[in-house]
Amino acid sequence: MVISCNEYSRTYYSQGNVLLVMKRPTAIASYGSAIAVGPNHANAYSNHGASLQDVSLPEAAAESFNQAIALKPDHAKTYHNHRNAPRTPHHHAAVVTSYDNTIALQETSC
Questions:
Q1: Which pLDDT value is given to residue 20?
Q2: CB of 77 within 8 A of CB of 44?
Q3: Which CATH number applies to 5-107?
Q4: For residue 58, pLDDT beyond 70
Protein backbone atom coordinates (compact mmCIF):
# COMPACT_ATOMS: atom_id res chain seq x y z
CA MET A 1 0.00 0.00 0.00
CA VAL A 2 1.34 3.41 -0.97
CA ILE A 3 0.29 6.43 1.04
CA SER A 4 0.45 10.03 -0.10
CA CYS A 5 2.99 12.51 1.21
CA ASN A 6 0.10 14.38 2.84
CA GLU A 7 -0.97 11.25 4.72
CA TYR A 8 2.65 10.50 5.62
CA SER A 9 3.00 14.03 7.03
CA ARG A 10 -0.22 13.59 9.05
CA THR A 11 1.17 10.37 10.53
CA TYR A 12 4.24 12.17 11.87
CA TYR A 13 2.00 15.02 13.03
CA SER A 14 -0.29 12.63 14.92
CA GLN A 15 2.69 10.91 16.51
CA GLY A 16 4.00 14.32 17.58
CA ASN A 17 0.63 15.15 19.15
CA VAL A 18 0.80 12.08 21.38
CA LEU A 19 4.41 12.80 22.32
CA LEU A 20 3.59 16.47 23.03
CA VAL A 21 0.81 15.48 25.43
CA MET A 22 3.29 13.15 27.11
CA LYS A 23 5.76 16.08 27.32
CA ARG A 24 8.32 14.04 25.41
CA PRO A 25 11.10 15.98 23.66
CA THR A 26 10.93 13.45 20.83
CA ALA A 27 7.78 15.29 19.71
CA ILE A 28 10.13 17.87 18.16
CA ALA A 29 11.55 15.25 15.80
CA SER A 30 8.09 13.98 14.82
CA TYR A 31 6.87 17.46 13.99
CA GLY A 32 10.14 18.12 12.15
CA SER A 33 9.50 15.03 10.04
CA ALA A 34 5.91 16.15 9.39
CA ILE A 35 7.23 19.53 8.24
CA ALA A 36 9.93 17.94 6.07
CA VAL A 37 7.36 15.78 4.28
CA GLY A 38 4.59 18.42 4.25
CA PRO A 39 6.19 21.89 4.41
CA ASN A 40 2.79 23.62 4.22
CA HIS A 41 1.46 21.94 7.38
CA ALA A 42 0.75 25.00 9.56
CA ASN A 43 -0.44 22.95 12.54
CA ALA A 44 2.81 20.95 12.50
CA TYR A 45 4.79 24.21 12.70
CA SER A 46 2.57 25.43 15.53
CA ASN A 47 2.95 22.26 17.57
CA HIS A 48 6.65 22.10 16.71
CA GLY A 49 6.91 25.53 18.34
CA ALA A 50 4.99 24.33 21.41
CA SER A 51 7.35 21.36 21.72
CA LEU A 52 10.36 23.65 21.48
CA GLN A 53 8.89 25.84 24.21
CA ASP A 54 8.52 22.78 26.42
CA VAL A 55 12.28 22.19 26.27
CA SER A 56 13.14 25.87 26.79
CA LEU A 57 14.09 26.79 23.22
CA PRO A 58 12.03 29.99 22.87
CA GLU A 59 13.84 31.48 19.87
CA ALA A 60 13.43 28.30 17.85
CA ALA A 61 9.80 28.11 19.02
CA ALA A 62 9.18 31.65 17.76
CA GLU A 63 10.56 30.70 14.34
CA SER A 64 8.13 27.78 14.11
CA PHE A 65 5.23 29.94 15.27
CA ASN A 66 6.12 32.60 12.69
CA GLN A 67 6.11 29.99 9.93
CA ALA A 68 2.75 28.62 11.14
CA ILE A 69 1.28 32.14 11.13
CA ALA A 70 2.68 32.80 7.64
CA LEU A 71 0.94 29.65 6.39
CA LYS A 72 -2.28 30.06 8.36
CA PRO A 73 -2.77 33.63 9.63
CA ASP A 74 -6.19 32.84 11.14
CA HIS A 75 -4.97 30.14 13.55
CA ALA A 76 -5.76 31.51 17.03
CA LYS A 77 -3.89 28.74 18.87
CA THR A 78 -0.63 29.71 17.19
CA TYR A 79 -0.99 33.35 18.24
CA HIS A 80 -1.82 32.17 21.75
CA ASN A 81 1.35 30.06 21.93
CA HIS A 82 3.50 32.62 20.12
CA ARG A 83 3.01 35.27 22.77
CA ASN A 84 4.82 33.03 25.24
CA ALA A 85 7.88 32.60 22.99
CA PRO A 86 11.14 34.53 23.39
CA ARG A 87 11.64 37.23 25.95
CA THR A 88 13.47 39.86 23.92
CA PRO A 89 13.35 43.67 24.04
CA HIS A 90 10.61 43.59 21.40
CA HIS A 91 8.75 40.79 23.13
CA HIS A 92 6.11 42.92 24.84
CA ALA A 93 4.94 44.52 21.60
CA ALA A 94 4.77 41.09 19.98
CA VAL A 95 2.79 39.76 22.95
CA VAL A 96 0.23 42.55 22.65
CA THR A 97 -0.12 41.87 18.92
CA SER A 98 -0.55 38.14 19.57
CA TYR A 99 -3.22 38.83 22.19
CA ASP A 100 -5.00 41.17 19.77
CA ASN A 101 -4.92 38.54 17.03
CA THR A 102 -6.11 35.78 19.35
CA ILE A 103 -9.00 37.92 20.59
CA ALA A 104 -9.99 38.99 17.08
CA LEU A 105 -10.00 35.40 15.83
CA GLN A 106 -11.91 34.12 18.85
CA GLU A 107 -14.51 36.89 18.58
CA THR A 108 -15.43 35.70 15.11
CA SER A 109 -16.08 32.18 16.42
CA CYS A 110 -18.07 33.13 19.55
A1: 75
A2: no
A3: 1.25.40.10
A4: yes
